[in-house]
Design goal:
This is Olfactory receptor. Its main location: membrane. Pfam families: 7tm_4. It is a multi-pass membrane protein. The protein is 78% helix and 2% strand. The chain has 371 residues and is an all-alpha fold. Strands 2-1-3 form a 3-stranded mixed sheet. The N and C termini lie far apart (101 Å). The N terminus is likely disordered.
């Protein structure tokens, strides 16, 4: 009964019966009410408490299931930055598409470029086209849109392909490092060691591991609930921003990222490191300076891409989740957009065979246009 009297007092706290006068007249107030009226007031107070509690529960449930879309803040939230950023990334996207497609066409049309190194390079260019197409078109739409939204299904789909292409590129860079190692350290067995069948198997392995890895991470993200906010401080659906938004425990996700994810990324990186250590040892044994320059020239382009790609990825993903800032968005631009755009320039400007192949391609195009 004392609990119900307390509820009655709380219910009438906005009346003159509360406060100093309320304490003086509280007994008088209870005395005025009859037993039936008091029970009715208690019942109403109980109904009110149940109603408000139910409302809070329903509000929480609605928040949990109502995240049907996310808001991508992008690189900047200032309105005056949107059009310049649109122009910048549109130009970068066009350069990426044209440059990488020219690389693919030049390799496919020149018989002198039908080697394992250029086979992997053509696949890398194709992956870069797919990689940027997964990200940039949505960025361009959001730059010119007031509501920078992406549906939940689109977000999960984008994250799957983004992770799949990123990991495939990582394994392709490792395959290219192995190719350079065999070419320099074991040139007499290069043709048999890096046969077309083995190159295709390396490609199939890279794609399979990458697809399974991205599928696992997306399924783990999909089991989380998002109830407090749907605003992603990024220009794409990435793992770390979504983990920070989750209102359910992310312990399993973080364990998988720091174990399986670490193995998936570190394995190709270690292949690259070991290959280039062996290459360096072999090159230092070459007596002539011209031979050393030639050996290093075949590896310089690949080393530049490896540094850009792995350096930015390590910066983004191998730091505490709580330290995620605007710098991570800039680093993501480097390994997603910038490296894909620079890929044709890095491999063509420093490679005589690629320059010659591009000249042949452009010459054939010019002759076809004139005829």
């Amino acid at each position: 009964m004392s609990l119900h009297l307390t509820q009655v007092k709380l219910l009438y706290c906005s009346t003159p019966f509360c406060g100093r006068e309320g304490r003086q007249n509280h007994g008088q107030f209870i005395g005025i009410l009859g037993e039936t009226e008091l029970e009715l007031v208690e019942l109403k107070v109980l109904e009110f408490s149940i109603f408000t509690g139910t409302c809070r529960i329903m509000e929480r449930v609605n928040q949990t299931v109502s995240v049907s879309e996310f808001i991508l803040l992008g690189l900047s939230s200032r309105p005056e930055d949107q059009k310049p950023l649109f122009a910048l990334f549109f130009i970068m996207y066009m350069v990426t598409l044209v440059g990488n497609l020219l690389i693919i066409l030049a390799i496919r049309s020149d018989t002198q470029l039908q080697t394992p190194m250029y086979f992997f390079l053509s696949i890398l260019s194709f992956i870069d086209v797919c990689y940027t197409t997964t990200i940039i078109p949505k960025m361009l739409v959001n730059f010119l849109s007031e509501k920078k939204s992406i549906s939940y299904a689109e977000c999960m789909t984008q994250m799957y392909f983004f992770l799949a292409f990123a990991n495939t590129e990582s394994y392709l860079l490792a395959a290219m490092a192995i190719d350079r190692f065999v070419a320099i350290c074991d040139p007499f067995h290069y043709v048999t060691t890096m046969s077309h069948r083995r190159c295709v198997l390396l490609l199939a392995f890279s794609c399979s591991i990458s697809d399974l890895h991205s599928l696992l991470l997306v399924l783990l993200i999909n089991r989380l609930t998002f109830c407090d906010s749907n605003v992603i401080p990024h220009f794409l659906c990435d793992i770390n921003p979504l983990l920070k938004l989750s209102c359910s425990p992310t312990f399993v996700n973080e364990i998988v990222i720091n174990t399986e994810g670490l193995i998936t990324l570190v394995t190709p990186f270690m292949c690259v490191v070991i290959s280039y250590v062996r290459i360096l040892i072999a090159v230092l044994k070459i007596p002539s300076a011209a031979g050393k320059r030639k050996a290093f020239s075949t590896c310089g382009s690949h080393l530049t891409m490896v540094t850009l790609f792995y350096g930015s990825i390590i910066y983004v993903y191998f730091r505490p989740l709580s330290s995620y800032t605007i710098k991570d968005r800039v680093a993501t631009v480097i390994y997603t957009v910038l490296s894909s755009m620079l890929n044709p320039f890095i491999y063509s400007l420093r490679n005589k065979d690629m320059k010659q192949g591009l000249r042949k391609l452009m010459g054939r195009r010019s002759q076809a246009a004139l005829s």
